Amino acid sequence: MIARLLRRRPRSRSSRPKAVEEAKLELTPMIDCVFLLLIFFMCNLEFVKQDGLIKAFLPKDRGQSTGPSVTDLGEVRVKLLWCAPGTTIETEDRDVGEVVLKIEKNVYPRSGATPDWEMLYLDLVKMRDIRDRSGNPDALPVIIDARPLVPHAAVVGALNACVKARIKDVTFAAPERPF
Amino acid sequence: MKLTRRPAEEARTDLNMTPMIDIVFLLIIFFLVVSELSTLQLEEITLPRADEAEPIGHEHGDHVLVNVREDGTIRIGGRSHSREQLTDWLAVESDAAGHEASADATHAPSKLHVTIRAHADTEFENVQAILGACSENGVYRMRVMATRE
Description:
The structure holds two protein chains of two kinds.
Chain A lengths: L1 H6 L10 H4 L6 H20 L4 E6 L18 E8 L14 E7 L12 H17 L8 E5 L5 H13 L5 E3 L7
Parallel strand pairs in A: 2-3, 2-4, 4-5
Helix pairs in contact in A: 4-5
Chain B lengths: L7 H4 L6 H24 L12 E2 L7 E6 L5 E3 L2 E3 L1 H15 L15 E6 L5 H13 L4 E6 L3
Parallel strand pairs in B: 2-5, 5-6
Antiparallel strand pairs in B: 2-3, 3-4
């Protein structure tokens, strides 16, 4: 009896049903998700590049002073003033080649009221034409002279009007006090 | 002529997905890291609007990006800089970029390009501080970042 038991071979594993042995991991949904993630990150990288750039140059010397401006059309000075609402600007003693724009405190830009950039553009085009007619081969230099508390958006608005008027030589006035 | 049937094992052709999944995972990690680095450079800032802004193309030469938050904080590469630190940092960067040929070697303009990415509502004096630091270090090539939308 014992000898018969010893002689008996252990049960083979192959006797299990075949379906259990061939269990496989389903990879298709995971690959789908991974591809979706890949596409998402690729698209996301593209969105970052939607911003634009406006080129400008700083003066190669120490900068233009904010003192009394010149009276000829050798250069155009765009002044951005930071005033209280309702303030009027004196226009009588304004120099030739000087454009003054008023930016009102607590109004711009949150309320959506913006300075008249179209007027600035038309003024710049007019001045550029005067310069072209004078036979001066150099590009008309424009200096943006903004008060320290003026919002950056207003300065970019003025810069945008210069680019629109095809003025390439745009510089910024140095501040009144040294840095 | 005698046609023999192929064994069952030969007929089963399984596509090995493992190398493809490896590559896809590597790509995902790459994009994750790159997007993380790009957010370090680009702070969460509301940019001013400008219709004439040129799309950002391929960059030539040495470029640095300076972010200015609404409260005037200057951020470069995810770190805040004071105005003095900015001046020192620009001095190092402009020297590294090299200078243009000039008769006056001490005031030769730098080849460095500076891109200012300032919040629309920040006061212009915060941007002026950067312009001043650029001017001190002979950097005159600058660009202002804006949104076209």
